[in-house]
Amino acid sequence: MKLKFTKMHGAGNDFVVIDAINQKIDFTPAQWKHLGDRRFGVGADQMLVVEKSTRPDCDFRYRIFNSDGGEVEQCGNGSRAFVKFVVEKGLTDRKSISVETMAGVIAPRLEDDGSITVDMGAPILEPEQVPFDTENLTGVKEGRDTLWPLTLELAGDKETVLVSVVSMGNPHAVQIVSDVDTAPVELTGPLIENHPRFPRRVNAGFMQLVNRQHIRLRVFERGVGETLACGTGTCAAVVAGIRRGLLDSPVKVDARGGQLSITWEGEGKPVWLTGPAVTVYEGEIEI
Ligand SMILES: N[C@H](CCC[C@H](N)C(=O)O)C(=O)O
Questions:
Q1: What is the pTM of this model?
Q2: Which residue minimizes the CA distance to atom 12 of ligand 1?
Q3: Which sign does the torsion angle of CA 187, 189, 193, 195 carry?
Q4: CATH code of the domain covering residue 243
Q5: Is 170 in the pocket of ligand 1 (CB under 6 A)?
Q6: Whether residue 132 sits in one domain with residue 83
Q7: Measured in angstroms, how far is the CA atom of residue 121 from the centroid of ligand 1?
C-alpha cells in the first residue's frame, strides 16, 4: 500500500505520524520496524497512529510503536505532536482533546503561542506496578522515594547504580549523575534497559541537578536507544527528584534536543508536560 505520513518531532524526539482514520493500517512488528529504520525506511524514534476512540469520553485513540517494532503504552513528546497533527489536519475543531492510550487517558492542549501542555496523568509509584521486581532487594529510603540498587555486569566487573523507579504508563529507571555529558549512557543504558528486574524492560534516565527547579536529562529509551528528548522520561525524572526532596515544581528540563517544563503537585496528582511540537514534512512510502 502507499502510506501517507507526516514527519514530526518534539524537542528532537522524532516521529512518523499516521492518520489511521482515513487510511487502513494493519502492520506487523517487522513493518513498524521498517518504517522506523533510518536507512531502509522513513526513520524515527517512534511511529504514532491516530485513530477514532471507541470511548465516549475520548476524541481519539493513540497507538505508539518504538523503532524496534514493539507497541508501547505511552509517549509524552508524541502526545504534543499528536494534538498538533489532528488540529492541522482538521480532524478536530478543538485545541484541547482527550486521547485514549494503552496507559489511560491523556489530555493535550495546543496553546495560542504554539506550545503544547499535556495532562500526562498521575505517576505510578508502586514498584510492582512499574513493573519492577523487588524480591530479595533492599531499597534505600530518601525523602518519599526509595532508591533501588541495580547490579550491572560491565566487561567482567560488577557496578551498582541506585535508581528511582516510576511509571508514566511506561516504565522508567532514573539515576542522578554529576554531569550528563560524561555519563556512561551508551554503556550502561542498554544494561539497565534489559535488566532482569524489569520484566517489560525499562527506559533509563540520567539526571543532572542544576538547581532545585532546573535539571539536565539524557534518556536511553526502551526499544530505541538514546533519544534527543523523552517526554515520559522527563516526567519520571522530575517526579523522582521531587520525591527525593531535591526538586521543587515547576522544573525546567534541558534535553539534548530542546527544553521541556514539568509541573507536579504530588502523589495522586497529574504530571503536566509542556513543550514544542514541529511538523517537518509530509511524505508517502510504499509498504
Ligand atoms: N521508548 C518509550 C516510548 C516513547 C517514550 C518517549 N519518546 C516519550 O516522549 O515519552 C518506551 O518504550 O516506553
A1: 0.98
A2: 222
A3: positive
A4: 3.10.310.10
A5: yes
A6: no
A7: 15
